[in-house]
Protein 1
Amino acid sequence: MTETDLHSFLPLKPHWFHIMLSLAGGEQHGYGIMQEVLNRTTGKVRLWPATLYGSIKRLIEADLIEESDERPAPELDDARRRYYRLTSLGRRVLDAECERLQELVRTIRAKQSQAMVTE
Amino acid sequence: MNFAWRIYRRLAQAFPHEFKLAYGTDMTQLGEDVVKEIATRQGMAGLIRLIAYIALRVPIEYLSEVHADMRYAVRALLKSPGFAFVGIISMGLSIGLTTNVYSSKWALLFRDLPAAVNAKNLVMPEKPVSYYYIEQFREQKDLFAGVAAFQIGVPFNVTFQGNTNAKPERVFGQLVSADYFSVLGVVPQQGRLLSPELDKSGDAPVVVISDRFWRNRLNSSPNAVGQILRLNGQMAAIVGIAPKDFNGAFSINPAELFVPITAPAALAPELANDVLHQRNAKEFLAMMCLAPGGTIDSAEAALDAITRRLDAQDPSLPARTDKGRRVTLLPAGTRVPLPRELRPVLLGFFLLLTGLVMTLACTNLANMLIARGANRRKELAIRLAIGAGRFRLIRQMMAEGILLSLLGGIAGFAIAYGLTVLNSRFSPPMGVPIERDFSLDWRAALFAFGLALVCGIGFSLAPALQATRADLTPALKEGSALQLPGYRRFGLRNLLMVAQVAASLMLLLITGFLVMGIRKDSSIQTKFDPNAMLLLSIDPVRDGYPPENAQALFEKLPERLKAAAPARRIAFAAQPPFSIIDGDEALQLTAEDSGAASRVQQSVIEETIGAGYFAMLSEPILAGREFEERDQRKQTDGSKTSSSLAEPNNVLPAVLNETAAHGFFGNGNALGKHVRDDKHLYEIVGVVRNLKNGIGISQSVIFLPLTPRDFARAPADGITIMVRSDAGPFAETDALGAIRNEIALIDPYLNLFHVQTLSEYLDRSRASTRLAVQTYGGIGVFGLVLAAIGLAGITAYSVAQRRREIAIRTALGASRAQVLRLVLREGTALVGIGTVLGFLGAVAVAKILSALTNVFVEAFRIGTGDLRLLVGAPLLLAAVTMLACYFPARRSVKIDPLKALRQE
């Protein structure tokens, strides 16, 4: 996978970014992803179930995430649910997106400090 | 909350099958988990959003599946380009043909006259009447809201202002009464139209021009209204421009100028001899707008009664006791007024023709899709077994059919467009221009597209259902012959095949009849080199000549032209030789002294010719003589003869062709005998061989001499001057230049038009025949090819199905010939049944159409009597289809029994 292919995914759609970010820590099921995003954003971003699974389907088709066949420890396992994890492509795309966002933040900071100096 | 949860679950169920399979349970569970939490945290608004999001998602998921299906279909079609090509081309051809026929014929025969508000209420008598009668009809206020008089196809030599040196252009228009536009319900786009209040006899001449005239000849000049045109040498002021698309009533012959009948005779020779006041001058067509609530039947009955009364009052008319209607009213709100009873017949004919073509293409597509579905049975079974939804598979197969028909639709548009362009480029050799410019009709396109779509869906659905219904277990095993318990005599496929063979044979025969009818010895054999004869037309009266001068011009022309260069022979005629004369203009003639008790009546085509015409064509006179110069001086006056019919001065000499002479007088001598119509008595002075016309048909013809009246008022084509050179083809000598010079010497302003050699003229004639032959022939061959493709597909499919059976038979010692026969037997039976049905169908159609109308009679009479066609077409079809069977059947022989059986 070349750089240009990676960048064809960028900028990531907000839903995709949130889902992939919650999978960065390890595999997770749909409900877990939803909760994680909700907590991380202090309730600001809610992935509604239909949207969540629609996005998951497309992420799988785009080969950014995959269904995980490894189950977590039996006591934590919810047997009824499917688990998802990032693919290696997905991880690289997520890294590239984070890099892009950091770059953006740096630019914004620079602009703000410039503005403060001139004031 | 419970309520929200129930809706959520319902919607979750509504997702596409594949999606539900993967995420359905998870999504339902997730909903169950969050619904309580959302209700407590966000209340009603949260629940509504939960439902809104899922409701929005359902169509999105479906669309994405459709998208995927389409991509899959594109890939599938790309993988079998042959299948795709045949499917698209056959759908394309049939949609293209249907759209084209609908656009042109339909617009012509059934669409309302453009820009005419009263189109629905317009009627007109079939035959022309005198202006006196029209004035009487106009009095019937309770029957008609308005009655106008008009003449169509009236030529005008037009010179444009400020361009006096230019040769005039010959433009066709109509002579109309002042109330013409108000009867039609037409309003001007600029200036005014004619009205009885403003346009009176003796006023300065005015003219209304059509939008086409304004655009093409005046370059859409904003100052057009008020401009002066020279029409036939006389000044006329443009007072208004007719609305866009309005080309007059009867717009199959588009009119560019509308001149009021109040114009002086010098401007319009048609109005000479005080024709408006001649009680018997049947020169005008009447256009009538029915009064509110009036019906065509009551109007016809009333008009008939009035006509009878008026006829009876006229002492000059012989008393008539006929019972039939003397007036037949036609609905006139279309471009071609048609008798009412003819409409359904023509409609039926075109529907049948296009219907057959569409049926063929659709059955073909169906066959191909069915065979394809069957080939994929195993693949489908595997996919079903590992959990693919049946609906999903069906949709996928349908996507292919829909894609095929959509592509076919696009190809169809392209073909229809091409045909339209081809049609508008081609002009038949007629004096009066004929409207050929029919833009594609969006309704036709929509109809054809819709039809294609329905076919695509329908015929991919059936095989998809069939293929996915398969009982999985046996289908997964190799023995795919499982669904063939012996013969399936009435299977869908076999029915389709029989229908296809029958339809294509019907198409082949009907188009064959038409082609034969048109073509029958259409090659005109002239007895001299047609390149050595020049045809040119003049119309001096419309160049401003008074009638007497015109007569004098024609008297001296032959000598002057003979003197010029190597032009050895000159003759005049009212139409070019071998021209196609409309059968509608036939004379109804009665033999006066046929000797038999009952007088022989027949309808005879009239051709008007000058002295020396037959010598010019090197045609021998079988009996008697041909016309001489003195015949050209006979004074006839159409409107005054009836009272003095018996005077010898009014007996016109006439020459009959063999068919006509035989029709009137049997084998007896026709010379010196008489025939008559209700105006003239004709004495037969000669009999000639039958000459074929431009489309190769010889009819009964009566030749009448050109008279001063014809010179004073030339027909639409002008007077044709035929010049035959003995020095070889005209193109190789400067004879044409010499003739032009000579005519310019006589009068530099004389307008020469339609200058062409006979050979060029005949080529144009033949081109019309050729186009018709190619069109109908093309349709017939198209059907044949489709049927062949369909049968080949069926046979290939059946061979694939019976692989195992054939292998066993071969293993048990069946010979190659036996195997081949086995495979071909089914195809033969289908072809046989289809051929018989198709043959009977075609003959029935020909008989029905002939019985209903005389439009196709000639073609069908010749066609159905032609053994080559009747025997040849079915044989050809059978041969081609059997050949199409044979190639896939041969594959059966190559089946290796070991391999085939081992796969079990």
Protein 2
Amino acid sequence: MSVFKDAKHLFVFAGLFVLAFLVFLVVRHYVVPKSFGEYGHYRGAAIGEIAARPIKFAGHQTCETCHSDVLDVKSKGKHAHVNCEACHGALEKHADDPSAVTPVLPDTTVLCARCHTASAAKPKGFPQVVPADHSGGLACNTCHKPHSPEMDAGGAK
Amino acid sequence: MNISRRQILILLPAAAVAWKSVLAGTPEASPNYNMTDHWWGMLIDIPKCIGCGNCVRACQTENDVPDGYFRTWVERYHVTDENMVSPEVISPDGGKEGFPVAAEDAGKYFFVPKMCNQCADSPCTQVCPVGATFVSPDGAVLVDQKYCLGCAYCVQACPYGCRYIHPEKRVADKCTLCYHRITKGLTTACCEACPTGARQLVDFKNPNDPIHEFLKTHSVQVLKPQMATGAKAYYYGLDGSVR
């Protein structure tokens, strides 16, 4: 066994190396999150965390479960494809507990103008008016029903 | 109570394991949602966009986007007769409060809503040094904000300028394609709020998705196709002057 004579210092280093590697493996096990690499080079649990964020817009399907009367009016008019929260704003809190949050009725002079103010930049087929000429400052819902905006003999509602 | 050294040696690791499982416990958000059944994207129908800014406001509300930062924004292009090559582009406050009225004049105008293109071969995820951003198995480009260092390599890498460093969290932030909504069976906040249907969520893996019919019968284009990003925001009616 003359080969290993005076080789103790080499074994000590080899042993230290193996020990350091084992320590690395143990530390790595605790430091790297469990789900890392589940789907790719990232923390798989992050997907669930992002999916768990709260929503603010309830979605028109939720609104329609209670407000079916509005849906009946709206689905027959020009605004059939405009979702409730496009005008009324995010109302998940109201859908969650109707008594907790009461939606504020939008001011039609501001709301309608956002889409329907005439501008050369807008698509030509889109209905547009110059509000001052069209109504002279009157609120849009004096004549139009926002949920079904075709002019109608009944006037405001 | 007397605890021997031996008991402590047994109890300590057990407590550590228990504590670890407490920390790891993340509530499963949508138990019936199967990632492998979906491949998400967006259809943007430019001729339908009226530049009202509803999408921008809805996105900021839904995702608590700080003022002055945008996960989606709207640009208005004006291609004039004098200069057909370089259009004038404006996007005041991201188009959040709409656009100034354009007087009737020559040239053509159109609005281009922009957002994360949810690239399948996304440059942003490839440069992340720590694996904090990734393409999910259902095709959404997401940021793991617990892992992100805020180095902003991804912000520089995105060819579409869709990322920013969140001013308070100091980590990368971007459009998640409302991942917390689409996994619950809802559409994105921008699509929900769009009054003209100019934005539509698309599930490329679901043959019953009504948008498939539109894609079959119309020519669509992506932004910067030469970058080969595998962008999944499909534009209908996209003008060649859009950058």
